């Protein structure tokens, strides 16, 4: 029964449904007794609340009359309910209607009592806040800040609208609340710009009390993404066919990522600090993870670079040629990211923005390697050390590449051994004895590269492929 009465008071069940349920169970007498007792308790609570706030309420005669009339009405209702209970005890006449009426009156009484509780709380906060002055800086949470925020929340819910006592005191307190929110907002956003987690956390205490920190944080994160994309567009708009430093502009654009990553990390760390203080465990950190800024940057950068490449073919070629340098700029930017962002994942995501250009670079490099092998096997080069020089040159280049690009080349290094074997088979008798002797040189060079850069089974794979080549044949009779 207590649970049903609580649901009735809070509006979770309608009086008519409550009455139907009571009559169905046949315990209407118990329900009437419980309602009567509850009404008596609410009557006492109303009287106590009015006395506790008499000074404020006496300034507003209409409020006093309203509450006095309500108390009188409740007293009359209690008397009626008691009489009805006595009548039901002797004779059951329309119990459904009686229970429904009693339930409706209890629900109305509870609503009035709930409003008065809120008014009582508001007036108590006003009394405790008499000496509060406008703030100019927020250095952390305090009782004064909490009280102002609680008053603001009460006002925003609108439960006390139309009650003179509330309206009069709210006019006095509203400027203090508005000032607090404005200072907190300004301090929060400035702290994000300077990546000052301490000041941002202090300002966030206000939003925590106002129960909108999640919303404020999400909005701040999205604003930083928008600012980053706008800055990127502004920088890249100068890239064109006539700009000699177009590639440098592209690299400089990449280096804006750490700036905005630091800002969103401040938002993330601020939220973590509030959770650590035990203020709330209901915050959703997923939309605030700093790694999202890397993903957003990669998507926007890819769109901008591909648009430039379509307009200016020469720049597209230059980008492909400068892939190692561009990737090194990625690495430089990643080194400056906050610790909360995974480095390897960031490099993977950023690299995805230049896939077409990187594929073109690797394809060109692969073609150059095959061309040199073909020249050797066709006897077009008499330089017996060409493969050693080639391998040394390739190793030197790879030393300047980042780990991601080196890894992307692994399959091409292994394929180089297979290509050598394939070229040899197709060339047949035209292969010079000198060229065939280069197999061990190539094997040694590629194995050294694999051992240095990969430390896996790739070296053995290369060795197996090249060692499967037949030994060079002896010159034919009569041939010098």
TrEMBL record:
A GO cellular component annotation in the UniProt record: Golgi transport complex
Any one of the GO BP annotations: intra-Golgi vesicle-mediated transport
Residue span, Conserved oligomeric Golgi complex subunit 5 N-terminal domain: 27-128
A Pfam match: COG5_N
Name of the molecule in the record: Conserved oligomeric Golgi complex subunit 5 N-terminal domain-containing protein
Upper taxonomic lineage: Eukaryota, Metamonada, Parabasalia, Trichomonadida, Trichomonadidae
